[in-house]
Amino acid sequence: MRVRFAPSPTGYLHVGGARTALFNWLFARHHGGAFVLRVEDTDVARNRPEYVNAIYEGLRWLGLEWDEGPDRGGPYAPYLQSLRAQRHREVAQALHERGAAYECFCSQRPADDNEDEDEAQQLPAVAPARAEGPKQAAGAPRTVCECRTLDAGRLAALREERAPALRLRVPPGRDFVVDDLVRGRVTFPGVMVEDFVLVTGDGRALYNLAAAVDDHDMAISHVIRGEEHLANTPKQQLIYEAMGWQPPHFAHLPIILNQQRRKLSKRDGATSLNEYAAMGYVPDAVVNFLALLGWSPGDNREILSRDDLIRLFDLGGVVKHPAIFDTAKLNWMNREYIKARPAAELARRMRELLAQRPADGETAGPARDDAYIEKVAELFHDRVRTVVEVFELGSYFFTDEPVVPAPEALAKYCAGREAVERLREVRSALAGTAAFDAATVEKVIRDLAAERGCKASDYIHPLRVAVTGQAVSPGIFQVLAILGKERVLRRIDALVHLLDARPAARTTVP
RNA sequence: GCCCCCAUCGUCUAGUGGCCUAGGAUACCGCCCUUUCAAGGCGGGGACAGGGAUUCGAAUUCCCUUGGGGGUACCA
Predict the structure, then answer these.
(1) A317 CA, B1 C1': Å apart
(2) Which residues does residue A5 pair with via DSSP β-bridges, in sequence order?
(3) Strand B closer than 7 Å to the CB of A8?
(4) Which pLDDT belongs to residue A261?
(5) Dihedral (CA of A147, A151, A154, A159) sign
């Protein structure tokens, strides 16, 4: 079995494309078939060569290695569609010769006067491309221009005037059915598929021709792609039929939608894979999550390794309805993967992200130290959803400066006058200890509380505000130990100073 | 407009005529634990879009309505 992922390099690999690639990969690995990467770069207007690399990077990040592709060759090379143009023209010519296609001299139909589409340049008309006039009663949107039946004399005359496009002669009077592996039999009324263009006036093979030819030539057995291609399928089947080729099986995957139930677009926050990488999602989690978006193993399992997925995957488990991309669940899953792996791995990912950040004050000092990163990772590895969350929740670990206390934290734990007292007491207790490991500082603080006859938390809360600037943090004793005596003392001093300077109005708290 | 597809908790889904007073996960809420926040444990609310039809019996079959999505290019 041979499947392919055929992106066009018009942008970064987005989650929809990634999901399509993943399902193809899973299918290939499950059946021991080949997963081929074919880059469909035939639309010169929108292509960007640099995006080919972006696609490679996205697939590699996910760990979806391809067996054949532009960069690694294979028995059916080349895998860059633009390099196969000659072959596309050959097939077009064969189609023409056997009467399955005809030359069309019509002007380009004006692109729908819909808003965003870039208006196609309109050439002077030879014949009306679309039959105008009142809507035909029985609903017959199919357009047949007179080029379909030009006689030899007229044909020759027209050829002198301009280069024709080549249209497929769609057989009239029959409906077209697609036996789709995920949605069953789909029937398109014959009147709806019109004589579509195979090759443009300037000799470029268009998508339906190129895709059909390449899929056939590359011996693709299963075409697994997004639902947006469903309506193209009858056209491609017609090409196979006209050429006498055996068509592949087709499977159309449901679209991934955003929270507003629309097709994912740039405005929906992160849509391309590299953004997820940058935010500290782990590839295995993204793969797991994407696999469950539109597919289910049929039981209640949620956490599935790559091997599980390969073993369990089949097209029968693919659902028909579109799925909404839910970041909350991805976050949960990512946390599961972070927790399931040792803290050292989180530390490694932190270092990777740190390396990509500018070396400003935020990441100065001890943040460079591997052992230090590891300790911080230890503290956060079962409380963060993403790697960057460590830097956000634990920002106080990545600066040598005193922290700026959050107003809420101040209001919650430092409102009363006694907070200052407590800070002074705990400061001097802490200053008096030489060892500064978690166990020691815990004993110091608990002893202090016992001695003063109050709760340890009475000291802990203001202390947390002093060293982290926040009302919440991981266990305070470990935080203190990692920060180190010097920074801790300095931060206590800074907060005491700040509290002292504040207006004396609110000295009591109810 | 026309064509096609789809329709179970907010979200991802299980469910292929009786096992369903509809299961799981996530999100949310509560309790326990606790130095805070998480994690963890326990518990809670929450769905078969609507209407017909078939059937002894429908989330499951058929039809209509509604809603959502996709397509409608000399783009892919």
Answers:
(1) 35
(2) A37
(3) yes
(4) 83
(5) positive
Which residues 6+ apart lie within 8 Å of A24 measured at CB?
Answer: A3, A4, A5, A35, A224
H/E stretch holding A2 reads strand A2-5
- CA-angle at A48, arms to A84 and A114, nearest 5°: 95
- Name, in order, each residue with C-beta under 8 angstroms of A131's C-beta and a sequence gap of 6 or more: A143, A144
Which sign, positive or negative, has the C-alpha torsion A293, A298, A302, A306? negative
pLDDT, tens digit, 9 for 90 and up, residues A56-97: 999 999 999 999 999 999 999 999 999 999 999 999 999 999
Flag residues of chain A having pLDDT under 70. Answer: 44, 109-143, 266, 358-368, 503-510
Question: Is any atom of nucleic acid chain B found less than 7 Å from the CB of residue A468?
Answer: no
Query: Which residue has 């221009």 as its token pair?
Result: A145
Distance of A141 CA from B2 C1′ (whole Å): 7
**CA-closest candidate to residue A207, choices A216, A198, A215:** A198
- Give the type of residue at A265: S
The SS3 assignment for A7 reads coil
What are the tens digits of pLDDT across the range A165-218?
Answer: 999 999 998 999 999 999 999 999 998 899 999 999 999 999 999 999 999 999
Q: How distant is C1' of B39 from CA of A381, in Å?
A: 10
Could you give the residue ranges of the DSSP H alpha helices within A15-135?
Answer: 15-31, 49-62, 85-97
* Structure tokens, A92: 């077009």
Residue A156 carries which DSSP code? H
Using CA atoms, how far apart are residues A148 and A158, in angstroms rounded to an integer?
13
- Distance from C-alpha of A452 to C-alpha of A41, rounded to nearest angstrom: 75
DSSP assigned state of A417: T
Whether the Cβ atoms of residue A251 and residue A46 lie closer than 8 Å to each other: no
pLDDT score recorded for residue A50: 87
Q: Does the CB of A294 sit below 7 A from strand B?
A: yes
pLDDT of residue A268: 75
Token pair for A469 = 């600037």
Predicted pLDDT of residue A138: 35
Beta strands in A233-384 (DSSP E): 249-253, 256-257, 323-324
**pLDDT for the residue numbered A119:** 30
Give CA–CA dist A238/A100, Å, rounded: 10
Taking the CB of residue A185, how many other CB atoms lie within 10 A of it? 8
Sign for the CA dihedral angle at A223, A16, A207, A229 comes to positive
Determine the residue type at A470.
Answer: Q
